[in-house]
Amino acid sequence: MDTNVSSSTLTSMPTQHPPNSTEYINATVKPFSVFDGCDHQAEAILFDLILQCINVVVGIPANTFVIAVLIHNRKESTTSDIFLGCLAFMDAYFGVMTPINFINLYHWQSKGVWSSIKFSYGVKDTSGPLFLSCICLDRFVAVVFPIAFGQLKDFKYRLSLSVLVFCLTFAYSAAKTVGGLPNFEKVFTGEVLAAFIWMVVCNISILWVLKRSRGAGKDEMHPMKKKAFKSVLSILCIIIFNYLPPVVLFPFEDHYAPYVFRCYVQPVGFAFLNVSSTIQPLVYLSRLEKVPFLSDVRIKRCSCCVTAESNTSPPTQSPQSS
Fold it and tell me: What is the pLDDT of residue 214?
């Protein structure tokens, strides 16, 4: 492999570079490793990859179905559908890269393939938090500032915001692929921390407004608002489950040994974030009132068949009755 260059060749001129100089440190290039230097501490990396297998088995079909549902319901689309569609597409792309990652770890061991995998990790790192933040922003304005929301319902605003997110995502992914940037890990730490705080504040504000919006003298919330309340509450739980671990672990990078943070802390934190590619589409599909691509007649027939089978099943006779 062309990447396995001998370190003795790279450091054959010590008189030109003092041992404490930056040039000397950069010259001692280690051989390429698909485990990114964690060849003997790969347990956490494998844990992350095992959870990513859920994205392959469940996440890819679920995200594909979400995209199909959004296209099917485009005439009755909501303002957040463009963000949901972009998020589902990015999550499906990330899931497709998991088998390639496995093959590259244990068979190809190609530096070029590893670069494309790092790019997909950059896409997941950025697109998920940013598009979820856009969804929270859209719902926050709709509930808390309904008048302003009515003035900003034009599709062009959400399209422009989506393009901005794509540009930020590809810029971050390209930088992650190139590597070597000082303190680059802290860029993601700051991003996910800011996105987490924003999403939590938005969802708590939405829940607070919906909780206060009961009619005068009424204990029960309006059915539509009650449905929105449950929807936002479920999203808040998912945000906390998927994003709280990296938010708690990553800001304390300086307190870990470098190899501990790179080989154990980061993979575990990313594992919770990566599995969101399956949880997010499943939550969306679970909230659908009507299953697309199935007519009401077929659904009624299926329900009638199940009811008929349960009614016609012979009762169990006791020995005394015989």
Answer: 63
Among residues 39, 53, 155, 42, the alpha carbon closest in space to that of 100 is found at: 53
SS3 helix, strand, coil % of the chain, rounded to 5?
75, 0, 25
Rounded Cα–Cα distance for residues 257 and 277 (Å) = 30
Query: Could you tell me the pTM of the whole model?
Result: 0.78
* DSSP secondary structure, 176-191, as one string: HHH---TTTHHHHHHH
Q: What are phi and psi of 265, to 5 degrees?
A: -65, -50
Share of the chain above pLDDT 90, in %: 46
| E strands in the chain | none
pLDDT in tens, 223-269: 767 777 777 888 888 889 999 999 999 988 888 888 899 899 999 99
Q: Are 236 and 200 in contact (CB under 8 A)?
A: yes
Q: Name the residue with higher pLDDT: 241 or 17.
A: 241
Please answer whether residues 56 and 32 qualify as being in contact, where contact means their C-beta atoms are separated by less than 8 angstroms: no
Range 97-104, long-range pairs (CB < 8 A, 24+ positions):
98/49, 98/52, 98/53, 98/55, 98/56, 99/56, 101/49, 101/52, 102/49, 104/34
CA distance 27 to 311: 78
Q: Which tokens belong to 10?
A: 């790279």
